[in-house]
Design a protein that fits this description.
Rna Polymerase Sigma Factor, Chain: A; Arc Repressor Mutant, subunit A
Length: 171
């Protein structure tokens, strides 16, 4: 992989382009902060580049294994970021300055939850009836198999429709 750095990087970038949006969503599900997610994504890309020989090795010849490896790195980097925030925000007095550091509550406020819920409700209402039905059943806790049986649809169809719903919600 170390043949020509420009060619290597072009290949690397081309190979990982399809994963970027999914990886950023995965990171967002951990940190709930768009800017932090983009920063973490950059760190993930650097880490993958540092181990790019592994990316093209036999153990990652299968795309599923490669994708899993990329998502595992993203997950670990997200957890590292959250651990960093926890360490940074511990409720203690700094021995050097005597300044008290307060814990920041990362939970959304009730107003944010209402706004988010309103957005979700409006988005679901704008969907076709079959998508609304699938979402309602999923929210009730039914499994994919149970939803497919109840609506007389193949499981794959239920999965793909749920995926489309999630994509609309993330946009």
């Amino acid at each position: 992989m170390k043949e020509n750095n420009n060619q290597s990087f072009d290949r690397f970038y081309h190979e990982l382009e399809p994963y970027k949006q999914k990886v950023i969503r995965s990171i967002m599900s951990f940190v709930h902060d768009k800017e932090a997610s983009e920063d973490i994504l950059q760190g993930v890309m650097v880490k993958i580049w540092q181990h790019s020989d592994d990316l093209y090795s036999e153990k990652f010849a299968n795309d599923k294994k490669r994708r899993g490896w990329v998502f595992r790195i993203a997950q670990n980097e997200s957890r590292n970021y959250l651990a960093y925030l926890r360490r940074k925000m511990r409720d203690k007095t700094s021995p050097m300055t005597g300044v008290e550091v307060k814990i920041v509550d990362f939970k959304p406020t009730p107003e944010q939850l209402i706004t988010d819920q309103e957005f979700v409700d409006k988005t679901i209402q704008a969907m076709p009836d079959i998508h609304q039905e699938i979402v309602k059943l999923a929210i009730q806790g039914l499994s994919i198999k149970e939803i497919s049986e109840k609506l007389s649809l193949p499981e794959g169809t239920v999965l793909s429709r749920l995926h489309r719903v999630r994509e609309k919600l993330y946009k």
